[in-house]
């Protein structure tokens, strides 16, 4: 490939894919990034001319060495792939953006798209392309409520506490509800990975949801084996959480296998059928988190770039029909996503790739204090992803996670982004908010005295010792 | 202007509730709102706390300004550096923070005697402020405790632009039984003073995080210095007794003072 007078060659697809990426410190750290902007664009041009079939036929990671590759190649819809197989990546980009390509059209081909194709087309799309194409796609999921319909924006309440103090967790959760948050899930990252504290958190959140009859899901984001051990001890589980990555080695570093995910999912579906306390809208029972750079951090990237590996993590998630999936885009730190520009790009890439692959994509729009970013960076990505039709964001009190020590989006941001884009909470949840007097006419209400008194009682209740 | 109901702040009769909420969680609750945004005081407080966190990350460690001269003299502290020569390089290239510069390696070999029972080193990590605030309280307790146990203690030094993986090179250079690295944690929005202690048994270049034990959250509102010292010393003793460190070793917490005694 010639750009100006320079000649660039790429020895294999792995190198071509890596060099076609927008600049990321993680790809540079792995030593696989383009050496110059001219080399980057040469790679993009060459990638644009590649056919989708060539990508399927030349796996970046050998399926004999990696069970994620195997899963991907065994599970895509070959019949649906036939009509698009000879398209080039460049033509595929135009197809996705075309006026005539609507939501139904994209839905038809979703099962035919393998993660490497989603990654390839992403590499030749601008930030606005990623928003435009993603905004066409709605992926709807159901557990105790319905997430992802057009016009709906969900929020996860993330009421973390540095020592897993139950009253502290409930207080944070309670205030989130008053801001109309919590329809995606009320989900706690525990400070300790113990089975006891995981069970205590699950029971407390379940008590909150059943006492107030709230149509939403709860979750304790401990390791999958910890959650299942808590289930064995009688704790109720709505959503089974796990972090997943795009290679077998990354998942091994997370202490999981694909079989564990499959068995865990089966157990939770069975558990839901046996439970008396839920009115279940559907059987999407998994919650996955991902993030660019996790494979490199686990030294299991196999020489593949972080955008492609992230898409492969979605390939893993897709196999288990999740209720929620989100990238934790700014959490990993500047070694992988250096600054606001890279975090924003990654957030848009992740959301688009997930949506294209059929996932109910949300995003933890966030940053750490050693990255070149601040709360304005969060505002920017939040608004871009709001425009892109992101399924849900995080709700953290004032964006300050006092356990994980990073900043995400807040309860206030939830009201803000819903107002700007005229979005509502999940339908069942909105009905509850309205009945409780928290919402009126689709907006946060000025609380009338009886509702206010009732909610203050709720706060008091949270303060009781309920260990 | 919204009425006070809409600010979601309990009104005057509820000051007691606000007080009790704050006893249960450091989360920023009951701050009210200005429409779909923060009230001005909240907005500026968040900016102030982020500014402090950023300053803590960027602050370069300097031995003579970080610690009192008596403290430095008493412990004969000296400063070395990793191969990361600037903070920026340190952030962008993690591998450089896991190796000593050639000059530092020579200085360590010149000033430290090898094969001690316990070798303590101090690293700035992501918060020079954290080690500045925690080390003067914690280090004397560790030294005193180690002496009581009859352990020989290597000469302590301070490492700038330091990552946890430097433990491996400390192990290769000085061959201690147990190496302890006190290192500044990534600052949160309101806590730039939190420090961790990483411990490893006979660390070598083959060690990863799986071979290390960790006592984290050492700061005034987390683990106090006496409790942290007790845990580090007890873990060190366990590591020596079993001849292993890392994820296969589970800390025996029952014997330690309770974390709630603070």
Please write out the topology.
The complex is a heterodimer of chains A (467) and B (262).
Chain A: E1 2-3, E2 6-7, H1 13-19, H2 25-29, H3 37-48, H4 52-57, H5 67-75, H6 78-81, H7 89-97, H8 103-109, H9 115-123, H10 127-135, E3 141-142, E4 146-147, E5 154-157, H11 166-178, E6 185-188, H12 195-211, E7 218-220, H13 224-232, E8 240-243, H14 248-253, H15 258-274, E9 286-290, H16 294-297, H17 306-318, E10 324-327, H18 340-356, E11 361-363, H19 375-387, E12 392-395, E13 400-401, E14 406-407, H20 411-420, H21 427-435, E15 439-440, E16 443-444, H22 449-463
Parallel strand pairs in A: 5-6, 5-12, 6-7, 8-9, 9-10, 10-11
Antiparallel strand pairs in A: 1-2, 3-4, 13-14, 15-16
Helix pairs in contact in A: 5-17, 7-9, 9-17, 9-18, 10-18, 11-22, 12-13, 17-18, 18-19
Chain B: H1 15-24, H2 40-58, H3 63-66, H4 69-75, E1 79-81, H5 87-92, H6 102-111, E2 118-123, H7 128-148, E3 157-160, H8 166-174, E4 178-184, E5 195-201, E6 212-218, H9 225-242
Parallel strand pairs in B: 1-3, 2-3, 2-4
Antiparallel strand pairs in B: 4-5, 5-6
Dominant shape of chain B: globular
Identify the CATH class of the domain at 62-242 in chain B.
Alpha Beta
Oligomer: heterodimer
- Label the CATH architecture of the largest domain in chain A: Alpha-Beta Barrel
Instruction: Give average pLDDT of chain A, whole number.
Output: 94
* Main β-sheet description of chain B: 6 strands, mixed
Protein chains sharing the most extensive interface: A-B, 49 and 47 residues
> What is the CATH domain class of the largest domain in chain A?
Alpha Beta
Give unreliable regions of chain B as ranges. 1-12, 253-262
Q: Strand-residue fraction of chain A? A: 5-15%
> Which superfamily, in CATH terms, is the homologous superfamily of the largest domain in chain A?
Aldolase class I
Q: Output the number of helix runs of chain B.
A: 9
Mean pLDDT of chain B: 87
- Cα-atom Rg of chain A, whole angstroms? 22 Å
SS-based class of chain B: alpha/beta
Please tell me what the overall shape of chain A is: globular
Helix fraction of chain A by DSSP (H/I, runs of at least 4): 40-55%
């Amino acid at each position: 490939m010639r750009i100006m007078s320079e000649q660039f060659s790429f020895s294999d697809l792995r190198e071509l894919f890596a060099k076609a990426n927008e600049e990321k410190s993680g790809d540079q750290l792995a030593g696989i990034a383009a050496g110059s902007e001219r080399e980057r664009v040469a790679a993009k041009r060459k990638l644009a001319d590649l056919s989708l079939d060539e990508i399927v036929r030349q796996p970046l990671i050998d399926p004999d060495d990696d069970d994620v590759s195997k899963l991907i190649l065994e599970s895509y819809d070959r019949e649906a792939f036939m009509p698009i197989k000879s398209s080039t990546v460049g033509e595929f980009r135009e197809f996705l953006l075309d006026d005539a390509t609507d939501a139904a059209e994209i839905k038809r081909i979703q099962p035919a798209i393998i993660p490497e194709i989603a990654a390839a087309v992403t590499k030749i799309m601008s930030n606005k392309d990623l928003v435009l194409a993603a905004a066409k796609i709605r992926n709807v999921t159901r557990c105790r409520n319905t997430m992802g319909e057009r016009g709906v924006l969900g929020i996860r309440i993330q009421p973390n506490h540095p020592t897993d103090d139950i009253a502290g967790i409930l207080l944070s959760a309670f205030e989130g509800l008053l801001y109309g948050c919590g329809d995606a899930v009320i989900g706690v990252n525990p400070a300790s990975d113990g089975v006891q504290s995981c069970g205590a958190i699950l029971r407390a959140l379940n008590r909150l949801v059943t006492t107030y009859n709230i149509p939403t899901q709860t979750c304790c984001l401990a390791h999958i084996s910890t959650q299942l051990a808590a289930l064995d001890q009688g704790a109720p589980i709505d959503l089974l959480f796990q972090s997943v990555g795009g290679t077998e080695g990354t998942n091994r570093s997370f202490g999981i296998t694909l079989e564990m995910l499959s068995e865990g999912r089966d157990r939770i579906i069975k558990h839901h059928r046996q439970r008396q306390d839920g009115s279940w809208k559907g059987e999407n029972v998994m919650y996955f988190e991902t993030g660019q750079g996790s494979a490199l951090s686990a030294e299991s990237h196999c020489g593949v770039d972080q955008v492609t590996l992230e898409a492969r993590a979605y390939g893993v998630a897709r196999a288990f029909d999740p209720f929620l999936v989100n990238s934790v885009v700014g959490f990993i730190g500047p070694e992988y996503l250096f600054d606001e520009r890279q975090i924003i790009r990654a957030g848009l890439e992740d959301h688009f790739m997930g949506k294209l692959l059929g996932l109910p994509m949300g995003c933890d729009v966030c940053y750490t204090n050693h990255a070149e970013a601040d709360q304005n960076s969060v505002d920017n990505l939040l608004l871009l992803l709001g425009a892109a039709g992101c399924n849900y964001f995080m709700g953290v009190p004032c964006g300050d996670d006092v356990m994980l020590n990073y900043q995400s989006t807040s309860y206030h941001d939830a009201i803000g982004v819903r107002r700007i884009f005229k979005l509502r909470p999940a339908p069942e949840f909105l009905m509850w908010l309205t009945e409780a007097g928290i919402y009126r006419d689709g907006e946060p209400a000025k609380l009338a005295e009886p509702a206010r008194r009732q909610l203050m009682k709720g706060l008091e209740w949270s303060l009781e010792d309920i260990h | 202007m919204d009425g006070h109901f809409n600010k979601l702040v309990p009104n005057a009769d509820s000051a007691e509730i606000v007080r009790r909420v704050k006893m249960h969680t450091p989360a920023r609750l009951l701050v009210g709102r200005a429409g779909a945004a923060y009230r001005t005081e909240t907005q500026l407080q968040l900016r102030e706390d982020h500014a402090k966190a950023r300053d803590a990350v960027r602050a370069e460690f300097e031995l003579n300004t970080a610690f009192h001269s008596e403290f430095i003299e008493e412990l004969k502290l000296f400063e070395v550096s990793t191969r990361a020569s600037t903070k920026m390089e340190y952030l962008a290239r993690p591998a450089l923070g896991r190796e000593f510069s050639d000059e530092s390696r020579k200085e360590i070999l010149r000033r430290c005697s090898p094969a001690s029972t316990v070798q303590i080193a101090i690293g700035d990590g992501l918060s020079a402020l954290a080690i500045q605030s925690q080390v003067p309280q914690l280090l004397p307790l560790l030294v005193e405790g180690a002496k009581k146990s009859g352990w020989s203690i290597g000469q302590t030094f301070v490492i700038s632009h330091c990552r946890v993986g430097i433990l491996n090179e400390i192990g290769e250079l000085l061959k201690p039984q147990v190496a302890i690295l006190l290192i500044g944690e990534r600052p949160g929005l309101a806590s730039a003073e939190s420090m961790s202690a990483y411990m490893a048994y006979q660390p070598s270049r083959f060690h990863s995080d799986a071979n290390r034990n960790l006592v984290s959250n050492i700061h005034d509102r987390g683990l106090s210095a006496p409790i942290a010292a007790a845990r580090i010393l007890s873990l060190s003793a366990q590591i020596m007794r079993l001849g292993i460190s890392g994820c296969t070793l589970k800390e025996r917490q029952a014997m330690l003072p309770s974390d709630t005694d603070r």
